[in-house]
Amino acid sequence: MPAPQASVDKLRARRFGLFVHWGLYALPARHEWVKKREKLTDEQYQPYFEHFDPDLYDPRVWAKAAAEAGMKYTVLTTKHHEGFSLWDSGLTDYKATNTPAARDLVRPFVDAFRAEDLGVGFYHSLIDWHHPEYPVDALHPRVDDADFRASQAGRRDIEKYRRYLHGQVEELLTRYGDIDVMWFDFSYPGMSAYDLPGKGHDDWDSEALVKLVRGLQPDILINNRLDFPGDFTTPEQFQPHTPPTIDGREVPWEACQTLNGSWGYDRDNLDWKSPDLLVRMLVDSVSKDGNLLLNVGPTGRGEFDERALATLSEIGRWTRRHGRSIYGAGPSEFTPPADGRYTQRGDRLYLHLFGWPFRHAHLPGLGGRIKYAQLLHDASEVKFREYAGEEVDSNIGVKGVPHGTVTLELPVQRPDQLVPVV
Ligand code: H79
Question: Which of 236, 265, 294 should be mutated for ligand 1, with most atoms under 8 A from CB?
């Protein structure tokens, strides 16, 4: 029982979303997997709970930054692998209300993004490194500690964790109105190490979980990380070469990408992607009929840091002028020139040139099909010519442009990068 087609179409048309990874890991500020990477005990992780005090948290500022970047929906980590709940769950004490934050952080988030007319989705971790009934497996932070492992053997009951998981999902989908996306993360059924099995659909009871979600929110979309069929697939930090398929059929998809390789706030990170590269990722996704869900990891004070804000604002300068080639646009039947992508919306074809060519861009197969051409950002005319056959220039010989190719006449420099000469 898949989601209604209208929901798929709506998410597709939105094309560009904001992923928000926010949790206790914002405080160590060195990647959201820090508990696993550094094999921290619950006691060692406890200070982050006790000091979680996002006094500057104002999701209206986040929503505004997202809207100005050109994003049309958002997905928030209600709980990540660390097990900490951002809302006032009735099923755990390990939640925002019991930290110095002392309030439900999900409610204002949902309200703020809806006020900007953005769709709202929930990320929810299947993995839980805090819950006492989550069976220790190879991904557990303390799996290397043989004494700990032995002490836990036979003491954890997945059935109890499963009830907790389903119960929390029910809370999320009954308290915050219509939710567009449920983004579960993640299953690893084939994995066995330390003689411990991975986890998959039997552990989560994915079938019942999907039934629960659809029963509560008939229009919602569910991703496919439940080790069970979902509505869309989510390549992670990976732009696929061709549109992803399942059983040979193209499926709705959304690439999730980081600004700097970390999902949680990562203070010392030097691996920031340029706005230009991120725009190319967005274009690449749309050209293959996919979405881009771009992540920000807010700080422990509750803000997007300056680097994230500057990047979003720069992306917004691009989407404001080029949105016609993105929202409601999709792939084209034509093959773009090397290092370029086509997106298409109705009878408008958009050529995105990742590398600016020298004066001419050759577009095979478009002969006779173009009525008018212009640069998108300033509507300035682009002249073009079509080659009717093998053309010979008296000075340079055969031109080497095949029949049916359209050649655009471009300025030497990319006009939006021109620096005025004073
Ligand atoms: O929330 C963000 C990440 O923290 C989470 N998904 C995004 C959205 C995520 N992190 N890693 N992964 C998902 C994939 C994990 C891969 C690995 Fe492994 C875990 C590599 C090694 C350990 C899974 C288990 C693959 C091999 C073993």
Answer: 236
390 Cβ contact partners less than 8 Å away, ≥ 6 residues apart? 398, 399, 403
Question: pLDDT tens for residues 217-257?
Answer: 999 999 999 999 999 999 999 999 999 999 999 999 999 99
Ligand 1: which residue has its CA nearest to atom 3?
263
ipTM above 0.90, yes or no: yes
Where does 38-186 have alpha helices with state H?
42-50, 59-69, 106-115, 146-152, 158-175
CATH number at residue 38: 3.20.20.80
Distance (Å) from CA 405 to ligand 1 centroid? 45
Question: Is there a single domain that holds both residue 363 and residue 301?
Answer: no
Residue corresponding to tokens 């928000």: 20
How many domains does the chain fold into?
Answer: 2
Q: How far apart are CA 196 and CA 329, in angstroms?
A: 46
Q: Are residues 118 and 262 in the same domain?
A: yes
| 288 part of a folded domain | yes
Q: Is residue 339 part of a domain?
A: no
Per-residue pLDDT at 292 exceeds 80: yes
Report the pLDDT averaged over residues 360-387.
Answer: 94
Residues near ligand 1 with C-beta < 6 Å? 21, 32-33, 139, 185-186, 188, 191, 236, 256, 263
Residue 391 structural domain: 356-417
The residue with greater pLDDT, 285 or 420, is 285
